[in-house]
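Why do we bother with a discrete structure alphabet at all? Because it lets us treat a fold like text: something you can write down, compare, and reason about line by line. To make this less abstract, here is a complete entry for DUF58 domain-containing protein. Read it the way you would read a sentence in a foreign language you are learning: slowly, and without expecting to understand everything at once.
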Amino acid sequence: MISERTRALLPRYTLASRATGTLVGERLAHEAGQSLEFFDVRPYGPGDEPRYVDWNAYRRTGRLYTRLYQAERTAAVHILLDTSASMALGGKLEAARRLAQLLIYAAQGARTQVHLFSGVQSPPAHTGVQRQALARWVDAAAPEKPGVAPDVAITDFVRRAPRAPGAGLAVVISDLFSETPLRSSFAALRARGFDASFLHLVARADLEPEPGLLELLDAEGEARLEVGPDEVRLYREAVRGFVARTREAILGAGFRYLLLTEEPAPEDAGARERALFAALVRAGVLVRR
């Protein structure tokens, strides 16, 4: 789970998305010329922001209600989390869990749901208590074997998503390792009106394998291959080429892209959590409210 200190900072941020105009969730309309349309109330729940309590309704009824705005009705955040076996290597899955939890708490006011690449879906979260439960659900997501390829997982998610105006924002958290290109999934996302951000997790050992004789293990298929220095050099070049092509394809499709390089076991988990948070802000995935 992310720390209480980081959780206290997240209400100041939200997720950027073109799918709902400018931002996802409870965007405060304090900038000149901006406003949000109030449209309904719902019963106040633990974890809801006190500043959105409808005090007029409380005076009339003696019950607490939270004011809802147009952005809350149209915004939805879908976190697509890769838990395939390859993600269990090099600290990628642990980082993916922390990233998902950062997004869950930043998406206050937006219907938020996590979808594993296998097709398993979490219950949707609306209130603060539901977000805490969703964050725990993410921590319990175990590596899966065999894994589902990213392009297949994304396309299947789009196929299952309900058809509604303002489809919302899809955030893909994965190492994106696949034998097939992502182009078909880009087309599926665009056809349904989704905006998307891709958080690309790559282990340091993938980018910079140790020189000398190595034994490569296929995390998905368990095949083993002994290689020498020349093969290691070619492997390094292939991985770097894959990362560059993936970045170019995602940005070319009009989506956000962030590359994150992970260590097997960071010495300071708190520092790594803060670094992930800062990276989301620098990349424009999270923006100030």
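What the structure line is telling us, in plain words: Residues 29 and 35 are 5 Å apart (CA to CA). The radius of gyration is 20 Å.
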